[in-house]
Amino acid sequence: MGLRLWEKYLLLGALAILGIMGVSFVVMNDYEPKAINGESESAKLSRDIVARKAFIDHEIGFNSSLYGNADISKRDHVKDMMKFAWDGYKKYAWGANELRPISKMGHSASIFGSGKTGASIIDAIDTLYIMGLKNEYNDAKRFIETELNMKSIRGDLSVFETNIRFVGGLLSIHALTGEIVFLQKAQEIADLLLPAFDTPTGIPLALVNVKTGKANNWAWASGGCSILSEFGSLELEFNYLSNLTHNSTYSNKIAKIRETISQIPKPDGLYSNYLNPRTGKWCSKHVSIGALGDSFYEYLLKQYLISGKKDLDAKKLYDDAIEAIENHLLYKSAKNNLWYFAELKGARVEHKMDHLACFISGLFALQSSNEPTQERKDHFLELAIKIADTCHESYARTETQIGPESFRFTQDAEAISLRETEKYYILRPEVVEGWFYLWRVTKDEKYRDWCWNFVQAMDKYCKVEAGYSGIRNVYRINGDYDDVQQSFLLAETFKYLYLIFSDDAVLPFDQWVFNTEAHPLPVAKNV
Ligand SMILES: *[C@@H]1O[C@H](CO)[C@@H](O)[C@H](O)[C@H]1NC(C)=O
Ligand SMILES: *[C@@H]1O[C@H](CO)[C@@H](O)[C@H](O)[C@H]1NC(C)=O
Ligand SMILES: *[C@@H]1O[C@H](CO)[C@@H](O)[C@H](O)[C@H]1NC(C)=O
Predict the structure, then answer these.
(1) Does ligand 2 have an atom closer than 6 angstroms to the CB of 245?
(2) 3-state DSSP call for residue 155?
(3) pLDDT, tens digit, for every residue of 212-258?
(4) DSSP state of 219
(5) What integer pLDDT is reported at residue 127 of this predicted model?
(6) Among 88, 328, 500, 526, which residue carries the largest CB count within 10 Å?
(7) From the CA of 40, which ligand is nearest?
(8) Which SUPFAM superfamilies does the UniProt entry name for this protein (predicted)?
(9) Can you name the residues that pair with 130 across neighbouring β-strands?
């Protein structure tokens, strides 16, 4: 089915403005959704409308306000970085999970079994589209249409990673373009994950073997328990998938998890990072907003926002969890009054913050602009700003001006790594992500300046012959690379950098919610 007449005019109008302004944005001229076999006409129809609505709203965002406060030359520099990283992957590692940019060959992360899954392609495609890299987008689309086949992979798929990168990435590009093939693939891949949910509590296991359908937990995770950030980061994708397919299989899985975590007693209001999926009891006590905890908190807030603020239960769970975290884990350093979130291991406080945990400044910024009272707005904005400052300090105190994997606070040291094993940087996005949200919310130029410094540092210390590489020690300028171009560089780091130098009308927060891999999904509307 084609566009209705008024929609055509609307679209034409928007495109004309686009054309006049010379905006390089992919225009979907073959926008004709293809049907999934056997699907009812009405299901197809309403799904098309949801998808197209997101698409049209997005295009309309690109009018004269587009250049309002964009910094075009910096934005385009980031686009060039993306193209350079993509070209290296395409030339030397096409179809592999990731690129080894120094050895110039493919790299296979163990989280997606073994096989040609093209993780970098699926993770990158929405970024390519948003940046208007049309040829690159078309190459990625062709791979997904003709080669992507997760059913054929050997070994175990990580339910969490597969969901946030593959299902999330495919749903996002579906939402942006309305192309049905992406939805079809997202559903196909989500179906492979379903055996993980067959537990007495509905809390899923971490790994699924695609060939056998057998699910398992990581052996290292507190004696085979499920991980909070993993089972807590499925909701945005699974609900949206049910919404688009009119099949409640996926949202039912999520409802069961919600029920379990709502009912479980939480000592001091805190969630541990490990839960036993058979008994529904906590395993060893480790509380953190960094690794193993992080995106559980993120998805509670974002589920509330993506529902059009209808899912009040999610907001309540979020508010309670954050209150407990603030009460028990928020500290201020002695010398420089740097605010940070520590971790709790049993009864012991570990004064360490992960690079991963820096995402929370972005989350608080987003929360602050959605709180009803001025008092709460101010409170969470202050937290966001203070944490972003601390994360910036972790960057500013290194030789490379790039921050480490984890940093610590002691009598003498503040925001510095003290262990050799945590001085590396693997192209992670969370610090930049925080600055991006804060830029949108505060318009304080310092966030753009920090991002631009980081861009220059990346070009100096991470750029190699065929792409960008992680480095082993941010405190040394010695060219010690890890030789991996992580797929999240393309999905997240470059996307946030591109967006901070773009106008706010590009993917506005009141219409899009970014999943934890930076794949934007549309906010539910009262259609
Ligand atoms: C352009 O964008 C602004 C701000 O989003 C909006 O108010 C206005 O209606 C848009 N104009 C057109 C022609 O779409
Ligand atoms: C999609 O989600 C919205 C908001 O969560 C809900 O109101 C709507 O009924 C859903 N539609 C379908 C078809 O599931
Ligand atoms: C919903 O999806 C599940 C998983 O793919 C499938 O088994 C089931 O038949 C579907 N239900 C309907 C009504 O299409």
Answers:
(1) no
(2) strand
(3) 999 999 888 777 899 999 999 999 999 999 999 999 999 999 999 99
(4) T
(5) 95
(6) 500
(7) 3
(8) Seven-hairpin glycosidases
(9) none
Give the pTM: 0.88
The reported pLDDT for the residue numbered 110 is 67
Domains and CATH numbers, the chain: 1-66 (no CATH), 67-522 (1.50.10.10)
Mutate to test the pocket of ligand 3, among 247, 248, 252 (most ligand atoms within 8 A of CB): 247
Ligand number with the minimum distance to the CA of 14: 1
Average per-residue pLDDT for the chain = 89
Residue with tokens 């409308």: 49
Q: How high is the pLDDT of residue 228?
A: 97
39's tokens: 């699907």
Q: Distance from the CA of 449 to the center of ligand 1, in angstroms?
A: 28
Residues of the chain with pLDDT under 70: 1-67, 110, 526-527
Is the CB of residue 394 less than 8 Å from the CB of residue 416?
yes
Residue ID of nearest Cα to ligand 2 atom 8: 243
Which sequence positions are flagged as catalytic?
161, 294, 405, 430
77: its two tokens: 């520099």
Q: Label residues 133-166 b or e (16+ Cβ within 10 Å = b).
A: beebbebbbebbeeebebeebeebbbbbbbbbbb
